[in-house]
Design brief:
Blueprint lengths: L11 H4 L4 H11 L5 H30 L9 H23 L4 H13 L2 H5 L2 H20 L2 H7 L3 H13 L5 H17 L19 H26 L6 H23 L1 H7 L7 H20 L5 H23 L6 H23 L7 H8 L3
Helix pairs in contact: 3-14, 3-15, 4-12, 4-14, 7-11, 7-12, 8-15, 9-11, 10-16, 11-17, 15-16
Length: about 375
């Protein structure tokens, strides 16, 4: 969008083009004056990012370890329901953005999805990877405490950077390479085997092993990095809105998700139904997973690299405290704290160079978070 063009009313200022958020972010960073309203929005964005990230991880962990009567809910069915809910929300947002006109909504869906089959099919690969990633999230949090998961999952910064260098030919600065080295050291320390010297550790609520959880996180990190870079590569220069992209991803996600339900959980579905084990907490997890990426797509306009670093740090700290005091499934050690500090420092350092040069965070990771968040 050129400077002379006027934005459309409503949400279209956010979702007109893939670079609209990055452009607005660049303007806000280069502007010497920040109004009080902009400052409030920035800190509100910080709160929303922290709340969304922390609440999803903690509620999902709690729902997967809660001991109740009857069978546990199927993670594969929760993934499908989250995709369906996300599609419905995006349809409502497009409907709202075009003055509640069914004719315009129908035209947009026809022009952007049905009349562009090849463009839509390009999203099948990242959508399939995202579906796998969402299922891996449940596996990881069934076997890892929330704090360990939060810290280890920051490895996606490394995988995204490496795929960006290899697939897009991007060049990383000295601070970014240094931050990746610090990141790997921090995650290695977090996963370092240790035994509590103060007595027996809390009895884990998960029936799985930590190794399974770590492997699930590692696969999710690699899939996250590849999908984000691939997404950036195929969508570069397109003009579709964020909401249309999420509908396209959601449609493929429904197909892949349903395949997962019937391939891996088909027998249990036939025995007890798709909604076995569902309770209000399960529906909360589904809603948080569906709304997560859309919330970030809205607030990322005000979130620079430093703000995202703060959000990540606060989320890790909150997850650690709540896992220790409330879920009682985590016994932190000095080695864990050292590793967590290194990971938090690496998160800030990775975004420092782009921030100092007044560059928008148009990385594959930011695109991944904007368009789809597991």
């Amino acid at each position: 969008m050129s400077c002379s063009e006027k934005p459309k009313p409503g949400l279209s200022r956010l979702a007109t083009s893939p670079d609209s958020m990055e452009a607005s972010h660049l303007v806000s960073m280069s502007s010497p004056l920040v109004s009080p309203s902009q400052s409030r929005l920035k800190y509100m964005s910080l709160g929303v990012l922290v709340l969304q990230t922390t609440s999803l991880v903690l509620t999902m962990r709690y729902s997967r370890t809660l001991q109740g009567e009857g069978p546990r809910y199927l993670a594969s069915s929760a993934v499908v329901l989250a995709e369906l809910l996300k599609i419905l929300i995006c349809l409502l947002l497009i409907f709202y953005d075009h003055d509640f006109s069914f004719l315009v909504l129908n035209r947009v869906l026809k022009e952007e999805i049905l009349n562009k089959p090849m463009e839509t099919l390009k999203l099948a690969i990242p959508s399939g990877i995202y579906t796998l990633q969402n299922n891996l999230l449940y596996v990881a949090l069934s076997n890892l405490d929330a704090a360990t998961y939060q810290v280890t999952y920051q490895l996606k910064i490394l995988t995204t950077a490496l795929f960006s260098v290899s697939m897009l030919g991007k060049r990383l600065g000295l601070y970014q390479w240094l931050s990746l080295l610090i990141l790997m050291t921090g995650i290695a320390l977090v996963q370092w085997p240790s035994e509590s010297l103060d007595g027996p550790a809390p009895t884990p609520l998960s029936a799985g092993s930590q190794l399974v959880g770590v492997i699930a996180v590692l696969i999710a990190c690699f899939s996250s990095g590849f999908a984000g870079v691939y997404f950036e590569k195929i969508l570069k220069g397109t003009k579709q809105s964020v909401w249309v992209r999420n509908i396209q991803l959601g449609l493929f996600g429904l197909v892949f998700g349903l395949m997962g339900v019937f391939v891996y959980d088909g027998e249990r579905v036939r025995e007890s139904g798709v909604f076995q084990g569902y309770n209000p907490l399960t529906w909360t997890v589904v809603a948080l997973q569906a709304l997560g990426g859309l919330v970030i797509a809205t607030v990322i306009k005000y979130a620079d690299n430093i703000l995202k670093g703060f959000a990540t740090s606060l989320s890790i700290i909150l997850s650690t405290l709540i896992s220790y005091f409330w879920l009682v499934d985590f016994d932190p050690t000095s080695v864990f704290f050292l590793g967590a500090v290194l990971v938090i420092a690496a998160t800030f350092l990775y975004g420092y160079e782009a921030q100092a040069c007044h560059l928008p965070p148009a990385t594959a990771e930011s695109r991944l978070e904007t368009h789809h968040l597991p």
